[in-house]
Specification:
The protein has ten helices and 22 strands. It is of the alpha+beta class and 406 residues long. It has three domains: 91 residues, Alpha-Beta Plaits (2-Layer Sandwich); 214 residues, Jelly Rolls (Sandwich); 74 residues, no CATH class. The strands form five sheets. Strands 9, 10, 11, 12, 13, 15, 18 and 22 form an eight-stranded antiparallel sheet that branches. A five-stranded antiparallel sheet has the order 1-7-2-4-3, covered by helices on one side. The longest helix is centred in the last third of the chain and has 19 residues. Pfam families: 2OG-FeII_Oxy_2. Keywords: RNA-binding. One of its GO terms (molecular function) is oxidoreductase activity.
Length: 406
């Protein structure tokens, strides 16, 4: 009996049309009835072309006749009846349709990059074989020895600060401990990957571990601008996937998850994708971090340059972030924040989230200092800025567009 992926489906509604194929429940190897016995018994109604597994249970089968009349005779005789020839079991029979094989529309399929240089999104970098196979197994063993938190479709672990999925933020006052010791080798490599020396604890302070079963992906989103710093690192373990990036019309909220269909229907959106191998490290920064939604399609098989790559039984990702000054310092330390701002090099791209009055006052003062430091008192566009408004800057060299309120 063919135990591969099911090729048939049963009729699920009350209206049906007859086919030469029958879905038979309560019958099969799992309940002690051999394929030979099944074929021999059903041959009494007409010539049997084949017997197939309906699913992986072993107790539901598909019987394929050459003639519809043979299937009709078997259906009328057996449905809901006890069959002594098949162990006295009550059989539940329905007509079945043969499923059409899935096709990939080459005109709609998105080209998949293998390297970040091919992807060509500023700020996105992919490093293959970031860790060894031995290091991968050590990391997986370490997280599997610790308790998982179950969500609706995946399991997670949080370190440093708990990631809050409802708000896509963290509670900076709820510190749950230092990052675990088993990620120290990864942190040391992150410093080298980033191109800086020094204390690796300054680079990240929050870790979320996600375990994805086959077919489960990630909804399109941008990690909250205000919650985390510029760089977000994601290490893929145990399995592969495709990650898609989408840049679309500006009226979508930059911090909320977006409906996939609405993005697909946005004719002016840009779409790119990249293949993430196991043990690879992905860095999101700059434009790739702030302007592009990232998204993992909910597929069990990814199509990469014409080849189908089946996802493994699990994919585990380690996502490293660092809380931003805005979250971790609060708003009573403006002088310290300003002391750490390099006004000559600062480039303000865009804020697209609502501030509270306290937050707005802080950002207003920071922007005033930026404007004065770079252009002196000649440019007084900041005088009309109002607190509690969303301020948007599209790369203005003199900050004039910072006065736009929405």
């Amino acid at each position: 009996m063919d135990l591969s992926q099911p090729r048939f489906t049963r009729h699920r509604d009350s209206t049906y049309h007859m086919t030469p194929n029958l879905y038979v429940a309560n019958c099969g190897p799992a309940v002690g009835i051999s394929v030979e016995a099944i074929k021999s018994f059903f041959s009494s109604f007409g010539e049997v072309a084949g017997v197939h597994a309906a699913d992986k249970s072993g107790s539901r089968i598909i019987v394929c006749f050459l003639e519809v009349s043979a299937a009709e005779a078997a259906y009328r005789t057996l449905n809901g009846c006890r069959c002594e020839a098949l162990g006295g079991r009550i059989l539940h029979v329905q007509y079945s349709e043969q499923q059409q094989p899935l096709k990939v529309d080459s005109n709609d399929s998105l080209p998949v990059s293998l390297f970040s240089s091919e992807l060509a999104i500023p700020g996105i970098y992919l490093l293959h074989d970031f860790i060894s196979s031995e290091e991968e197994q050590e990391l997986l063993s370490a997280v599997d020895s610790r308790p998982w938190k179950s969500l609706s479709k995946r399991r997670v672990q949080h370190y440093g600060y708990e990631f809050l999925y409802e708000t896509r933020n963290v509670d900076s006052k709820n510190f749950i401990g230092e990052l675990p010791s088993f990620v120290i080798p990864v942190l040391e490599k992150l410093v080298k990957f980033h191109g800086e020396g020094g204390n690796n604890s300054k680079l990240v302070d929050q870790l979320t571990v996600n375990e994805y079963p086959p077919g489960i992906g990630l909804s399109p989103h941008i990690d909250t601008h205000s919650a985390f710093d510029n760089m977000i690192f994601s290490l893929s373990l145990s399995g592969t996937c495709i990650m898609e990036f989408r840049k679309y019309l500006p009226w979508h909220s930059s911090t909320a998850a977006v409906d996939v269909k609405s993005l697909q229907e946005c004719s002016s959106s840009l779409r790119k994708s990249i293949f993430l191998p196991a043990r690879s490290m992905l860095l999101l920064s700059g434009e790739g971090r702030y302007a592009w939604h990232h998204y993992i399609p909910h597929h069990k098989v990814d199509i990469v340059r014409g080849d189908g790559i089946r996802r493994s039984s699990r994919r585990v990702s380690f996502t490293f972030r660092k809380l931003s000054l805005r979250v971790s310092f609060g708003y009573d330390r403006l002088e310290e924040v300003l002391a750490n701002v390099n006004f000559h090099n600062i480039v303000i791209l865009e804020w697209r989230f609502e501030y509270t009055k306290q937050e707005s006052n802080l950002m207003l003062q920071v922007l005033i200092q930026v404007n004065r430091h770079k252009h002196g008192d000649r440019e007084r566009c900041h005088e009309k800025w109002q607190p509690s408004k969303m301020v948007t800057c599209y790369g203005s060299r003199k900050g004039r567009t910072l006065g736009r309120e929405r």
